[in-house]
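for the writeup, i need someone to sanity check this before i put it in the appendix. the sequnce is what the collaborator sent (i think, or maybe the updated version? ugh). structure was predicted straight from it, no edits. if anything looks off just tell me and ill rerun, i have time this weekend
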Amino acid sequence: MLPYQDPDRPVDARVHDLVGRMTLPEKAGLLCHTPVAVSPDGDLVEQSHGPLPVAPTTHAVEDLHLRCLSLMAPVSARQLARWHNRVQALAARSRLGIPVLVSSDPRHSANANPLTSVPSGNCSRWPEPLGLGALGDERLVRRFASVVRAEYAAVGIRLALHPMADLATEPRWCRVSGTFGADPALVGRLAGAYVEGLQGPYLGPASVAAMVKHWPGAGPQAGGEDAHFPSGQDQVYPAGRYEQHRAQFGPALRAGAAAVMPYYGRPVGVRGLREVGFAFDPEVIAGQLRGGEGFDGLVCTDFGLLTDSVLPDGSVWPARAWGLTHLDRTERARQLIEAGVDQFGGEWCPEVVVELVTSGRVSEVRVDDSVRRVLTLMFRLGLFENRYVDEDRAAAIVGQADFVAEGKAAQRQSMVLLTNNGVLPLATGVRLYVEGIDPTVAARYASVVDSPADADVALVRITTPHEPRQRLPEAFFHQGRLDLPDEQLDHLLRLAATVPTVIDIFLERPAVVPELAEHAAGLLGDFGAEDEAVLDVVFGHARPGGRLPFELPSSMAAVAAHPEDLPCGTENPTFPLGHAVPAGDWIPRVTESKG
């Protein structure tokens, strides 16, 4: 047994011994955090087939010495576990046997954007983090995160690329649904509770490590455009709230978050900061994060700061090196390393690190600092002793009945009752016209009719409006306007004039719907709920217990006039932060339909 393989030795000593045995290419491989895919039967994928490029897995592990792999796959728990064991066996055959650390974006909600989340597959389905923000319950957040930990660990995912501690101050921003909302008194506390639930009382073999993002606070995107794209590269602070955004990360860091991901955006007009992507600025990483917060864990960039991506249609998605796009990727990498970054997210180009060291532009001693941080995390998670998972156990744990039941309950409880003119909860005897909801599910609650003219009440589900973007990958992101298109609004108002109409809105962003607030018989908001969950609430089988985690603006003019970095405060909002109509006597009702 070599010294680094001895589990009885202190972690620092094991790391020191292993680093001393590694070649420069092996070290460089640990500085890349690489997206990979899984075939439907759990095999390794060696060629990109989807809308986004992924690394060929065998080449990445065997030839490039990569050991941090981000899993971009919604396959079943058994197939994930099978893939995990295969890739760990591949790594075990290497010269030093360094295991693989597998990470993942969120997998437990309705969000299907492959650049920010993974479809839930077998995992229990919960509301978006916004729904947890609507409930504001730290205990529930810890419980949710502990469920994530159990389901992730069962399939071998040991690093969560979440939570988001971002303050949702710009209503048009497409990432609002992944935040806990816009309340600066709540967001940081919930992010800290999330880290506690993921990692447990200490970072160890029973933990899933948390990578809190997006330091020092995404959200104040100029015009609401997202920094994945050139149109959204700027973050602006017209209300001077940079420090308020940064402060949201304090509870997560104090809870011991293992890793931090800085955002793409470049701050405009912030004293002391360069107008370049946050990860490139030594003041933001080495100064404020490592020095100011005392953070000595892993810092991994958001994905794709070095290399342009060639998409299946031949178009190029430029690397998100905002403010430094004129530099080649080697110089970008040098500036990231010098800023205090440890890993390049979304990259599989370790040769860049080798070139920097051999040319004398970066010292190997500096590379060793980052290698130590990666290896320390692996040792603390127990990966060197227990790298494999049990396929049968994975299939039994992921999506187990109590996890699913808790997620369903949270979907219902987090819903917000925005208005009610007395029609809610609906009676089980009504004749019901539905839109945007599965009529076969609705038929379990009421007599479903085909025409609003034959109905006692209508129930409509809609989503927060957005402006569709025509090309991938931007088409995955819901950005832009928040008000309903004229044709949709006219239809809903005509329906409400014909029959009492209850409308449920999936509030993935703050919808601008003052007309619905005025004319709907009842208005609810959900944060990623299944049809059954909405129907349970509408018919009184479950009580809506959420409060708005942001305000709902009254107009797009009010949104445009609002400072991007200011929590709430739009002019004359339709509903303020924290709004909810009390759901008092919320029990099932029975009445006879009109004859």
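The chain has a mean pLDDT of 95. The two ends are 83 Å apart (CA to CA).
thx in advance!!
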